Amino acid sequence: MAVVTDVEVVDLGTTSLRELNQRLHDVAGEEPEPRRWRVVNPNGSHAVACGLDAPLEVEIAGHVGYYCAGMNKRATVRVRGNAGPGLAENMMSGTVVVDGNASQSAGATGRGGLLVVHGDAGARCGISMKGVDIVVRGSIGHLSAFMAQRGALVVCGDAGEALGDSIYETHVYVRGTVASLGADCIEKELEERHLLEVQSLLQRAGCRDVDPFEFRRYGSARQLYNFRIDNAGAY
Amino acid sequence: MTTSGWEPGLRESYLYDRNVIAEIQRAAREGIYDIRGFGAKRRLPHFDDLLLLGASISRYPLEGYRERCGTDVVHGTRYATKPLALKLPVTIAGMSFGALSAPAKEALGRGASEVGTSTTTGDGGMTDEERLSSKTLVYQLLPSRYGMNPDDLRRADAIEVVVGQGAKPGGGGMLLGHKISDRVAEMRDLPRGIDQRSASRHPDWTGPDDLEIKILELREITDWEKPVFVKVGATRTYYDVQLAVKAGADVIVVDGMQGGTAATQDVFIEHAGIPTLPAVRLAVQALTELGMHRRVQLIVSGGIRTGADVAKALALGADAVSIGTAALIAMGDNSPEYDEQYRALGSAAGFYDDWQAGYDPVGISTQDDELAGAFDPVVGGRRLANYLRVLTLEAQTLARACGKSHVHNLEPEDLVALTVEAAAMAGVPLAGTNWIPGVGEAR
Fold first, then answer.
1. Which of A198, B387, B400, B431 could form a disulfide with A212 if both were Cys (CB 3.0 to 4.6 A apart)?
2. Where are the alpha helices (DSSP H) in B163-296?
3. What's the pLDDT band for B441 if we cut at 50, 70, 90?
4. ipTM value of the model?
């Protein structure tokens, strides 16, 4: 039986955003105390639990606005609701999980860690991602993985138009349909190492019922990496 | 034909001068637009078209070498709990590690710190060298977010949200593949040797209402300590400044079209944006109408070269100016002692603008270890400090002559314009008249 530890409850209906984030920032170190936090009545507040840098577990009971868990390091943030734009933008490490849907630019420029969206994610999911891994249980919107540099984007549903436009070295896996591919993004062979990568990410995201063999892989054709006038039509 | 270009019977076209002809021929030969560094080279209305009036019977000057003329400025008094207190109204503009070598970035920090002003990172993240050498360092948040991380946000002294720059308002950045060393590649999370494009718009916000929330997030991450700057290229300056104020900026940086760049298309440098001169006036007007002039500080950049430029920009209402190109020149760029090396590259001292190429013999705009290693950051920093002192002394000299005990006491009333264009753009009278073209007319 798991040990039940204390949970610090913060009510954003009566506590300011500033006070919440300051308290979360003040509990630094490898063994922060309290470790487990529960935020109630977020009511779509912006910038909730952003800039964390400790192995905290933060559960947010409700919907959040922009930039929830922005630049997260080490913490685990779970949103029991939907998330607005820029969810976990530029996250460095740790885990961010959204039970519902995420708006546009989820995981933008993220440099590490794992972002899981159990619903759908809007446009520009994983834009300019730089090492974060993103798993979306549902579908993603247009221009996702735009200029994506590193990391992996796993989409269990469908992808919107211009997927992976001007992509660099991010691995993109989509189980459903792709409306269209962006400039310099092509379908690539799904090799064993890619299957293992998808399988691992699905497991970490809690999507064990999804078959990794059903995914197709997309990545950079690397034709736009250095300017050539013959490619002018693609720019 | 002589080198001066004229002999009897030879008539050069004004429309198709030698530069135009050479560019058409180059374009036809190479099939790609010209990418270069430096800033706009065309003649534009500028601070040279303004004059300071100085004291007279009705105005009382300060003694040139004895009476105090303050130059200090505090940035970020609106919201930040730790505003920046600088000794000079001249700061160093954002220039990236990648565009510039690590020793050059270090020299910028050394020079600025020696005289008590700030430096700024650039599109490529913060290096330890510049953090260690810069007493006051402004950390840029750019669309690319190369190297962005919360640790650097917290160890910065201020944060600058870059919306655009004067050399290419509306344009993204480009660092050509041959300047991508292993270190630059690692900092930017990209493979070595490929062209690194920087997006032209931010990945997670798209308008003024979003920007307000973005600034809130940055403040929350840094516990409201850091001043937040918003930098815009000069275009729709009046509206951009008002929107930046509305979004919660502590400081607004307006970069006129003369602002420098390390790598941008020539057509962009020369044909987009508005000059610094009208940009200052529009920015001050926007702040004044909101009751925020001096409460939100205004930094102006784009072609600041002399203490006269500094004094005139401040007289128009700026709180400080920022320099980039001039700082590099002070550190040794385009120095005559390198003329032979410049000529080997097809250029000459005084003309070199291929900062994008990475072959800079001075060791500033390069990532070549050998070239960069020849640049001494101590000497470069010292030269920059000297230059910053001269800018300040010159500005003080002019301010004292106008009877001002602080450079911020300079005012538009101290200025007249030499041309109708400058009078209209700066909003000061044409010399010898009380005529300000455009006053009372639609903006």
1. A198
2. 182-188, 208-221, 237-246, 266-271, 276-289
3. low
4. 0.95
